[in-house]
Amino acid sequence: MTEVRLDRAVVTVPDDGSPERRPRTILGPVDLVLDERRVSVVGANGSGKSTLLRLLNGLVAPTSGSVTVDGLDTVRDGGRVRRRVAFAFTDPISQLVMPTGREDVELSLRRKHRSRAERRSAADAVLNRFGLSHLADQSVYDLSGGERQLMAVAVVLATDPGLLVLDEPTTLLDRRNILRLRALLDGLPQSVVVATHDLDLAADADRTLVVDGGRIVFDGEPRAAVEHYVRLVDGS
C-alpha cells in the first residue's frame, strides 16, 4: 500500500476582499498518515476536501508543513510523486484531451513505451482490462457520462501508479454508472482516496475523513464518520 504523510500541512490563499490582502487559510493544519487500501473524504462544498486531495499529488503545494508520498516530498520530488499518484477529476471531459479514448491511453503511455507499436499494444491491453475495448475509437464526446468517467480512470491508471485519487467521481453519474464505477474501484490493486458526496460510496471504505471549515473534524470508521457528517449538516 502507498503511504501518504501530511505533517502540519497548511494551505493559504490571498484574501482579495481584504485591503491588506492578508492570507486566508483554506485548509489545515493537517496531520495525517494515510496507508489504508481505501480512504474516503466527505464534506460540504468549499470545506477544503478538494484542496486536501490536490495536496496528495502536488497539484496544490502546502504553504507550510509538508506532504510526502512513500517518502517523496510533493514539492521537491513533484515529478516522481505524480508518477506514483494518479488524479481523476470530477468532470472527465476536462481530463480526456485526445479525440478518442485509445489516443488518450496511448498519450499517457508515451514515456513508458517509446515505440508507437508498443504503445498501441499496451493501450489495447489497458482498454481490455477495463472492459472498454468497444469504446476505444469512439469520440470521447459521443460517450455517456459513465463511459467517460470509466475511460478517464483507465487513462490515469494506464501507467500503474500506486495511488488513485478521485475528486467526486460520481457527481455526473446515474445510479447504474455509479455501480459500475464502484465495481471498478473495488477490483483495483491500487490504494484509493476518494472525495465524494455519495455517502454509500464513502461508507464503503476502510477509513473516512470528515472535512469542515478547512479542518479534519472526524477521522475514523466510515459508518461513524458518515453519521458525524450527517449530524454536522443537519445541525444536530
UniProtKB/TrEMBL annotation:
SUPFAM superfamilies: P-loop containing nucleoside triphosphate hydrolases (SSF52540). It comes from Terrabacter aerolatus. It comes from the Bacteria. This is Cobalt ABC transporter ATP-binding protein. InterPro entries: AAA+_ATPase, ABC_transporter-like_ATP-bd, ABC_transporter-like_CS, ABC_transpr_CbiO/EcfA_su, ECF_ABC_transporter_ATP-bd, P-loop_NTPase. Residues 4-233 form the ABC transporter domain. The lineage of its organism: Bacteria, Bacillati, Actinomycetota, Actinomycetes, Micrococcales. Belongs to the ABC transporter superfamily. The keyword Transport applies. One of its GO terms (molecular function) is ATP binding.
